From TrEMBL:
GO terms for molecular function: catalytic activity. GO terms for cellular component: membrane. This is Endonuclease/exonuclease/phosphatase domain-containing protein. InterPro entries: Endo/exonu/phosph_ase_sf, Endo/exonuclease/phosphatase, GPI-anchor_lipid_remodeler. It comes from Hufsiella ginkgonis. Keywords: Membrane, Transmembrane, Transmembrane helix.
Length: 372
């Protein structure tokens, strides 16, 4: 028995659906190119990569539609989906979920990265400081090493903040490199460690990437040296008006068209700057003589050039042991994964978890590792 109805002609509605299916399929194919093409030269491909979380389920819906219609056109979206199968595991955790151990062996290494939004609560225009609550989240995860992104310290009481975090976290060694300084406070990346720091530094910016924010520490772990990078790639820097527009998504008017133009321009600028930054960071990583891991806020999705450029030759902790969509940024209308943990091949990933606590605009992520 032939499942497909060969005698049935396409209705006008079918033809409209087919046209939309063709466009959605081609857009999905375009998104598959985003990890390979530097958006500095062709920024539209970066936009296609951002659309992947919508384009993938859209094509799956077309499969269901054409199956219901018993039409051979079902092969069209099926082919597009099959071509992109290698990318599914980068965006959705499909392997066996391995929860964090409550009592991990001493030889395991638990690492964590958390963008704390300057220790400000998300539900305020001018956020209420919540460092104790955020430190509590970190403490309950019991990391050996944590990268705190957008760490903010008041200069007048800087030492007290460090001592407080050291007491609450039990991580006695730290390195903080301010990225932004003013008269009152400093903001940047702080790396806290249970292990002694034998060397620390940062990736020097270049004229093409003056805002590069990447720091590292070399740690003495069981007599061996391991390097840990903490990075914060270029933010899109949406203002209040853009966040409000994306959250409400009202019908377009003149103001809405203006906001779309501003959003597009900010995205294009961020794509280009991140591409410069990842080249600097990748060059620094290639010169590293030790096993290393890199974690932080990449400000880009799994279908992006910057994430895949950093991840070349490395192990993605989420792809190895993650579950579901791995969402780490939950603001606006489109929650996405933009925080990552990558390791060199000397490490085995044992577990991965997104800590679903909404204090910052980011969720912290934690992974257990073991040296091979």
């Amino acid at each position: 028995m032939n499942f497909f109805n060969n005698q049935k002609k396409l209705t006008v509605f079918d033809r409209v659906v087919l046209a939309v299916n063709v466009l959605a399929g081609l857009a999905l194919m375009f998104s598959y190119l985003a990890p390979f093409i530097n958006p500095r030269y062709f920024w539209l491909v970066g936009m296609a990569g951002l659309g992947y979380p919508f384009l993938l389920p859209a094509n799956a819906i077309f499969v269901i539609f054409w199956l219901f219609r018993r039409s051979r056109w079902v092969l069209f979206p099926v082919v597009f989906l099959v071509i992109g199968l290698p990318w599914v595991s980068q965006n959705y955790g499909l392997k066996n979920f391995c929860p964090l151990s409550s009592n991990p062996p001493k030889e395991n290494l638990r690492v964590m990265t958390y963008n704390v939004h300057g220790f400000r609560a998300l539900d305020k225009v001018i956020g209420t400081p919540v460092p104790d609550e955020m430190a509590g989240i970190i403490h309950s995860s019991r990391p050996d090493i944590v990268a705190i992104i957008e760490f903010n310290s008041i200069k007048a009481d800087q030492g007290a903040i460090y001592r407080s975090l050291q007491r609450s976290l039990g991580l006695n060694h730290y390195y903080f490199k301010p990225h932004e300084n003013d008269e009152w406070d400093s903001t940047g990346i702080a790396l806290f460690s249970r292990f002694p720091i034998i060397r620390s530094g940062f990736v020097a910016p270049s004229p093409q990437a003056p805002e590069t924010e990447a720091v590292f520490v070399d740690l003495s772990i069981s007599g061996k040296v391991t390097r840990v990078y903490g990075i914060h790639l270029q933010s899109v820097r949406f203002g209040f008006a853009q966040h409000k527009f994306l959250k409400q998504l009202r019908p377009l008017n003149r103001g809405g068209v203006k906001e779309i133009g501003i959003i597009t321009d900010k995205l294009r600028t961020a794509f280009s700057r991140r591409s410069h930054q990842v080249e600097l960071i990748k060059a620094h990583m290639r010169r590293c003589p030790y096993p290393y891991l890199v974690m932080g806020d990449f400000n880009d999705t799994p279908m992006s050039y910057s994430v895949n450029r950093i991840g070349e030759g490395l192990t993605n902790a989420f792809a190895e042991k993650g579950s579901g969509a791995g969402i780490t940024y939950h603001r606006d209308f489109m929650p996405v994964q933009i925080d990552y943990i990558f390791t060199s091949k000397q490490f085995e990933v044992l577990s991965y978890m997104v800590v679903g606590k909404k204090l910052s605009d980011h969720f912290p992520i934690v992974s257990d590792l073991r040296m091979r």
